[in-house]
Write a structure and sequence with these properties.
The chain is mainly α and about 700 residues long. Among the domains are: about 1-135, no CATH class; about 145-305, Herpes Virus-1, CATH 3.30.40.10; about 620-700, no CATH class. About 65% of the residues lie in helices and about 0% in strands. The protein is built from 37 helices and 5 strands. The strands form 2 sheets. Strands 2-1-3 form a 3-stranded antiparallel beta sheet. Strands 4-5 form a two-stranded antiparallel sheet. Helix 3 (about 35-50) runs parallel beside helix 6. Residues about 305-410 have low confidence and may be disordered. Functions as an E3 ubiquitin ligase. InterPro entries: ARM-like (IPR011989), ARM-type_fold (IPR016024), ARM_PUB (IPR058678), Armadillo (IPR000225), PUB2-4-like_N (IPR057314), RING-Ubox_PUB (IPR045210), Ubox_domain (IPR003613), Znf_RING/FYVE/PHD (IPR013083). Pathway: Protein modification; protein ubiquitination. Its EC number is 2.3.2.27. Keywords: Repeat, Transferase, Ubl conjugation pathway.
Length: about 700
Amino acid sequence: MEEVSRLRVLLDNISSYLSISSSNDKLSSNPAHKYYSRVEEIAKLLMPLLDNPVVSDVSPSELLNNSFEELSQYVDELREQFESWQPLSSRILYVLRIESLASKMRESSLEVFQLLKHLPADLDCIELVKLVGREEVSYTIDLALIDQRKGVELTPEVLVKIAESVGLRSNQDILIEGVVLTNLKEDANLVKDNTRAGFIKGLIYLTKQMHDYLAKIEQSQSPSDFFCPLSLQLMTDPVTVTSGQTYERAFIEKWFDMGLMVCPKTRHALSQTTLTPNFTVKAFIANWCESNNVNPPDPLELIHSNQPFPLLVGSCSADDSRDSLPLPVMDDTLKCNHIESVDASKCEELHQVLTRSASAPGIVSKVVSKANTSISQAPGETVPQPWIIPATMKETGSSSNMEAEETGGSSSMEVEVKKLIQDLKSSSLDAQREATAQLRLLTKDIPDDRTVIARCGAIAALVNKLYSMDKMIQAEAVTCLLNLSLDDSNKTVIAYSGVFKPLVHVLKTGNMEAKENSTRALVSLSKAEENRTKMLQAGAIEPLVRLMGNGSPRGKKDAATALTNLATRNREKEMVIRGGGVRYLIQMMNPAAGTVERAVVVLANLANVPEAKIAIRDGGGIPLLVDVVELGSPRGQENAAAALCVLCMDSSRFCNIVIREGAIPPLVALTRSGTTRAKEKAKSLLKYFEALKQENQRRN
């Protein structure tokens, strides 16, 4: 019978779930282990009841059949989640997902017991299931996000409770969580899911607060620059990674061995794992230790101990935390009853959020199914970890909306930005590096955040850092300004901050990333004629020409765009030509480089200057332009035809050269299939050639 088969499937799924503890040796380290135990309690109550012959012999109602099917689905999904846990996936999102499923399984079990109320054991089972712990991590995180939105500093007790509840037991766990969440936030931004991105951004900030709390405890007696961000201990063998951050060698090597190819502090991807000894910091640490009679710990002993990283400590443990936070009780009208020891205003705000969303009882009200692939999983292996978005975030929509709300004081974003601006003025290079790196992350994604950052006065502080002798600080600062310039409301402020000379300074002295981002910033700001004048006065053309010669393909294209915007008069065009610009543009016409179209645009712009015509001819540019007319993209064909048209105008010598390169057949084809402008230019060239032919015939 179908009814029996549904019951049988449910019993099989429960048996499979109960077998996890004997077959999965990683269960004890699973951050959601306590939820496994809770579901196990309920499963052990269900098993003997459902396996009773009385149940199997009864013809169940449709409602009971559906309840069996729903409960079976929850049990099976919980089993899959516990079996698929990966250490390098998000612990917070994983625990929230498990908690939500466990709560649904609990409610579904109660429904089954109610429907089987004719059985003698049902009342006892119902009471026992009610005693099993309910969800609370999502509730705690909801309250924390409300405080975060209001700019209220979270207490150490709250940070410890959240960290322990989701299995973030050490500084290393916290840093890994930050890296994973940052990657997931970028994925959300790619698909323009602002709600999910905003929620994850709030979680990232929580992990930062946890790290800062631990660092404050460990570093209270000595300079923070002397501590490894991973071990939170004095460094004995400090090394610098390519992001410019310094770590204890043994700990950063372990980080890399785990497959984490990102900087733990900045969360930027690292192209290589090169470690450069930082002898300056090592000498400072040695002098400080000697002066203060301090013996730094042996990093090898720390890293090989059972607990190599400092543990979070708090008043509650992961095992007993289920009873440490009073839970809201929701009635049929979704009113929040009295919650002991919780601020009444927070209770009322939660009530308003839940009432607006009309969600089911509980704080976590929306599950967005999106596979979250662990960064450490094997190729082709998918770890299903659907997102969980609490009701507070569902209503706010995105973090930008959260920050924009009037709260009677500074938002958490403003508080954070103002602190980072102060760090930019610190005498500590590490503090400046961290501040510019964090500002870069904050300016990267959400437009509203850029407005808040500019309003806090970050632009002037960042412009000042463009003259930093530290290449990493300089590169991060110019990238921040580039990101801020993408918001039109910030362009005027940036332009009036005296940014153009500093940007040109970066173009001349920065590393390649800094030079290229400085160029992109100039492109972003060059739409206004007043700004273009200031760029020219700052001497932008010469370093832009050099970047066309030695930059990456992206850098070369951006430099070419900037020069197109700046070189509008013959005087500036001649500066480009004298700097070797035509030679670099011809080099950029290599199809393999992916820069052909941009190079052709600039050549067409320069071609009316006599020096440029000679340079194009002598540099072998004409046959390349003919090739683009024949084989290029529609836009490339259009601009190549325009360049040839300028070269051949009133010049029989250039007409003959272009004809000898076989230009006539592709030009004829272009008159039939090109863009409107391409057709016009092709027809003009063919008229020049026809006029030249008639002139030669008259002479003969």
